[in-house]
Amino acid sequence: MLAALYIGRPSPFALATTVALALAILASDAWIIARRHRITGSLALATQIAFLIFVGTYMASPFPIPSPPSDSLPSASPPAGMAIYALRTGVNYRTSAFAYRGDSPWEKWDSVLNAVLVRHPQGDLLIDAGQSDRFTESGAPLT
Question: Using CA atoms, how far apart are residues 114 and 117, in angstroms rounded to an integer?
């Protein structure tokens, strides 16, 4: 199931199979405890509850949208021959659950790997931008 979530959108059959397997494991732990193997069953049940709590930490927790800057920006005076280029260096095809905390494991998400090249008379500068192609949709200011 984890491979299906990582590679792409899992089918409803794969999801139903995973849920059924998880319920069967929990029922097996309850059966072990009922047969008076309390230590073994309790340890297994505690491990699985801890895993479920861990999975629950992946709920969405977006940052609040900041207020726009109130100060005016200084005027720019770039030197002659200076230029800035945005370079699209690759694309990572995954689900949005691997791109943004709390997003859906069924939504496709293409994360673009960007870089910025600054051509300057004193030398060039290459910056790894590390932003998604949906960065502007998040409401965060591009600084």
Answer: 10
* Per-residue burial over 54-79, b = 16 or more CB atoms within 10 Å of its CB, e = otherwise: eeeeeeeeeeeeeeeeeeeeeeeeee
Global pTM exceeds 0.85: no
Closest CA to 86 of 124, 129, 141: 129
Task: Please report where in the chains the tokens 């199931």 appear, as a residue.
Answer: 1
Percent helix, strand, coil in the chain, to 5, is 40, 20, 40
Domains of the chain by residue range = 2-56, 83-134
Distance CA 103, CA 115 (A): 25
pLDDT of 4 over the 60 cut:
no
